[in-house]
Write a structure and sequence with these properties.
Elements lengths: L7 E5 L4 H12 L3 E6 L2 H11 L2 E4 L5 H11 L3 E4 L15 H4 L1 H19 L6 E6 L3 H4 L7 H22 L3 E8 L7 H14 L3 H6 L7 H13 L8 E5 L3 E5 L2
Parallel strand pairs: 1-2, 1-4, 2-3, 4-5, 5-6, 6-7
Antiparallel strand pairs: 7-8
Length: 250
């Protein structure tokens, strides 16, 4: 996939934050983008401003995943939809709050990946799954978030194994964002919580990750890894504002 011109792209959770940054970058490179998200207002704004197609719905709905992939047959699928976890230490979590990211992020990734394999998507298709640096270092104030993001990362590897066994030319890759991004709702919520715990201002806490990472820049990196040959094979990518894209297979 050397160009995104004319490629059919579907981005779940693409109406705000990092997902919107991805959508903006894909549109700028000529892709035909469809955005799926729950909230009608941000979706309509994305449609008005960027000219994208939109679908309002729950990314964790398996029937929706099946119908959308069957109808659109995207060659680029970015699974970015996710919940904002309840920020609290373990002893203050309920099972419901602790498992929320599993019941939304992991469930959604499972259904879309499973459907992509079963249809299957067209040869040469790329599926990107949003993981997190928390999958490596943990995240003690966000319940089951770190484990859920590690599972999504593992799922990309599992799916590549299935694709190989079935002779499918589909590549699944995990996006591992290795800094808290204060420009997103999830990132700002996490930054405020951890900054308070460490006795720092939010700005001081975020400065510890190095250069800020605007959502549009993140989107440009995602577009680059879809089109540049050196990024075709790795199973996962670490992404930061300071160092950009770093492929790895750990």
């Amino acid at each position: 996939m050397r160009t995104l011109e004319g490629q059919r792209a579907l981005v779940t959770g693409g109406s705000r934050g990092l997902g919107l940054g991805i959508v903006e970058a894909l549109v700028a490179r000529g892709a035909e983008v469809t955005v799926l998200a729950r909230s009608a207002g941000p979706l309509e704004e994305a449609k008005r401003r960027l000219g994208v197609s939109i679908i309002a719905g729950d990314a964790a709905d398996p029937a929706l995943a099946a119908s959308v992939l069957r109808e659109l047959s995207p060659t680029v699928l970015v699974l970015n939809a996710g919940a904002t976890p309840v920020m609290a230490p373990l002893h203050q979590q309920s099972w419901e709050s602790f498992s929320e990211v599993w019941n939304k992020d992991v469930k959604a990734a499972f259904h879309w990946v499973r459907t992509a394999l079963n249809l299957p998507l067209a040869p040469g298709s790329r599926v990107l799954l949003s993981s997190s640096g928390a999958a490596i270092g943990g995240s003690p104030l966000s319940g089951g978030y770190a484990g859920a993001k590690r599972m999504i990362w593992l799922m990309a590897g599992y799916a590549n194994g299935v694709a190989k066994d079935l002779g499918l030319d589909i590549r699944f890759q995990a996006l591992v964002l290795r800094q808290i991004n204060g420009a997103t709702r999830l990132g700002r919520t996490a930054a405020e919580t951890y900054a308070q715990r460490q006795g720092k201002s939010v700005e001081e806490f975020l400065a510890g990750f190095g250069r800020p990472y605007p959502p549009r820049e993140y989107g440009e990196h995602v577009a680059s890894l879809l089109t540049e040959p050196q990024y075709e094979s790795p199973a996962a990518f670490a992404l930061t504002g300071e160092q950009g894209i770093q492929p790895f297979d750990a």
